[in-house]
Specification:
By secondary structure, this protein is mainly alpha-helical. 75% of the residues lie in helices and 6% in strands. The chain has 2 domains: 5-11 and 176-238, no CATH class; 31-172, Helix Hairpins (Orthogonal Bundle). The protein has helices at 5-28, 32-85, 91-172, 177-189, 213-221, and strands at residues 196-200, 203-204, 226-227, 234-238. Strand 3 and strand 4 (234-238) form a beta hairpin.
């Protein structure tokens, strides 16, 4: 049997009450969940930076080893050419070997310069990475503290939150999908999370704009679902004023 508008509005009010309690529980946590996520992202960024430093230093050390080997190879060639100079047959051969020796010496000078530059870069990167590791350690401590604080708050309300989540799931089953979608959409678009309100003191309980008497009568009759013309919230009833 199709539910009446009154029962639909009653189900919506019940769901709103549950959601408001859940909102309050999460409000107590404040910005802690977001702060924890931000710290986790920041830590991940620092860790990526440290790994890049390590990779860069490893590459520089590998380049240094290669250049040292190049120096050894060049020194070996120089000795070889010097031995050959002793057995040259003419000045042209001597000059050619002399040029080869000079070329190898130049290669050694370039390699030594590159090694010195690489050592300087490693020193600079080590200084940078020390600062990064220091900030990383500080952020890890901050994250540990924030997580501990958040875990304490969550543990205090965990049982109640689980019950409310169960109640919310149960309450949602009694609301048709179209109406439930509208309710969820309104909740996302309002700052206080109130999608279903009543008229209090002739005003919308969400935006506090005045609701005309005839419209209040229609709301009280509960013949159809009526929304506030100012804020779009569902108006589920009219609270009687007590004089």
């Amino acid at each position: 049997m199709e539910s009446t508008v009154a029962s639909k509005l009653e189900s919506l009010l019940k769901l709103q009450s549950i959601d408001s309690q859940l909102d309050e529980i999460r409000r107590v946590r404040g910005d802690l969940p977001e702060e924890v996520r931000d710290l986790e992202d920041e830590i991940e960024g620092y860790e990526v930076r440290v790994r890049k430093f390590d990779d860069d230093v490893a590459s520089l050390n590998e380049a240094i080893a290669q250049r040292k080997q190049s120096i050894k190879d060049a020194e070996g060639l120089i000795r070889k050419y010097e031995d050959q100079q002793s057995n040259v047959r003419n000045n042209r051969e001597y000059d050619a070997i002399t040029k080869e020796i000079e070329l190898q010496k130049l290669e050694i000078q370039i390699a030594e310069k590159k090694i010195k530059e690489a050592h300087y870069q490693i020193e600079q990167k080590n200084n940078e990475v020390e600062g990064t590791k220091h900030r990383l350690e500080e952020r890890r401590k901050d994250l540990e503290n924030k997580k501990h604080e958040l875990d304490q708050i969550v543990s205090e309300s965990e049982e109640e939150e689980q019950k409310l989540e169960h109640d919310r799931t149960e309450a949602s089953t009694h609301i048709e999908e179209r109406l439930l979608s509208a309710y969820n959409r309104i909740r996302k678009n309002v700052r206080n999370g109130l999608a279903v309100v009543t008229v209090k003191r002739d005003a919308c309980g969400g935006c506090f704009n005045t609701v005309p008497p005839q419209r209040q009568a229609d709301i009280a009759a509960q013949k159809k679902v009526i929304v506030c013309e100012h804020c779009g919230r569902i108006l589920a009833g009219v609270e009687q004023r007590i004089f």
